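Consider this record:
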Amino acid sequence: MSGVPDPVRCPWCGNDPLYCRYHDEEWGVPERNGRALFEKLCLEGMQAGLSWITILRRRDDLRIAFDGFEPAQLATWTDEDRLAVLDRPGVIRHRGKIEAVCGNARAVIKEFDDLGTFSTFIWSFAPPAKARRDRPATPSDLATETVESRRLAKALKARGFRFIGPVSAHAFMQSMGLIDDHLVGCHRARS
């Protein structure tokens, strides 16, 4: 034992090493890579009705099963491809969610010139920097949805995306750093 205390973290990650690493290295870090944003949007859809740690533990298997979440690949999947993925290890075996991943890939290809314009579109829903809000002090202070997440979900749905509502859009915005919801005292909270 090193005698160095663990850093103060948001309590939602508990003591699970995978969850702590996700919290410390990914959650809330501003991400502008369009492919990474697309992947996370798909994973948020996969998470519906499940815990995030379930998705996190299966993320590598899901990346393999879904061709690295490359929209150009997923947009060409056939019915046979979508059925075959049900037999892959680590996959969330929900046909509607699998269909949504492929449909969302087709929406990205149809609606955006490239993944860079997709990223610009996503980031256009981030609250303005000057619209500073108080940092949440406790988990009960965290919103489950916001005006921005409702707008993002509505805009994505209008473009053909599925398995994205205001709550999952808010979780997506938190995780990808569009907003910083690390709690007061958390070592990852941005100033």
